[in-house]
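User: Fold this; tokens only.

Assistant: Input:
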Amino acid sequence: METNTQPSRIAFYAPFKPLGHAQPSGDLITATGIFDFLRRQDHQVMSASTLRCRWIYWKPWLWPRLCWERQRVVRKFSSEPADLWFTYHSYYKAPDLLGPYAAKRLNIPYVIFQGIYSTKRSRRLKTRAGFYLNKAALLAADHIFTNKQVDLLNLRRLLPDDRISYVAPGLNPDEFVFDAEARAELRQQWSSADGPVIFSAAMFRPDVKTRGLKWVIRACGELYRQGEAFQLVIAGDGRERKTLQDLAAEQIPGKVRFVGKIPRSKLYRYYSAADVFVFPGIGESLGMVFLEAQACGLPVVAFDNAGVPEAVQDRKTGLLVPAHEMAPFVDAVKSLLRDRELRRQMGQAASAYVRAHHDLDRNYRELARQLLRIVKNKPSLKS
């Protein structure tokens, strides 16, 4: 959607986690980034609904609201016409049940960003309904964009190539830059002197995020028992805080500092104060923290699994190790703790890599151009 074109009116919907949701996550960051980018391009982007479809097919008390929302959004965009319906993230757990209906009734193009197709979800009773509801949404879409290569491959099993596009994930690099003053200030607070600081960040939820932080703490426990010098700083908060604190007291007494939940706008200060970012990213679809840390010049240690390799270049901007293997993970962290020059080289490469390949504005310009083509081709839409 270029500046010399007529701005479009876009109905924007996120069925998994609505914009403004209180619980931060990578999905919410990505959705908000797209929403804000399109608005910066002078398009009128309107939040279509706050209906959350997470496991909605197992929540019959929400079905009346779904029916009501379908009628409400059609009325809304009939009186205030939209040029395009844009859904962020549809998959088996939160299939888009509004977009296909509304777009068809309004006779406007329907697109999905981060549509996910996974046939294994059809084999379990708990997820079978979600699989077929999501599949129907994917088939109804005029175009699907994805920011993960594995999802691109899976979508090709369902749709032709001309209805699928890959858009590399991104952030605004200007929001994540190295800050020497913040480094000096925080390291003085932490009494870290010249010793290496390991940094990790995640919400303390009872899921893979907490499992990942437990992995980091246990890995640091191995390093502690081997006599390595370091300080571990963990940012985040949530229900599992005490569990993590107890584990840290057992594994690395006196070597860890919990700094609480840090606003994303302030995270660059903590990345700047650290020397290496360590988080396994268990089954991580992407992990925005990996891009944020690298943008600030931090090398990364993580698992070589799921979407992590799309964010980290192994042996160039960080070290990726086989998933769930402790010894290689510990050795990777140790190699960076012991080698200041290696940290410096990888950190510089990491910052340059993010700016070259994961600049949000640059990557989303192609998304915007394709949206414009879809709007222009409206007469050729499927009936």
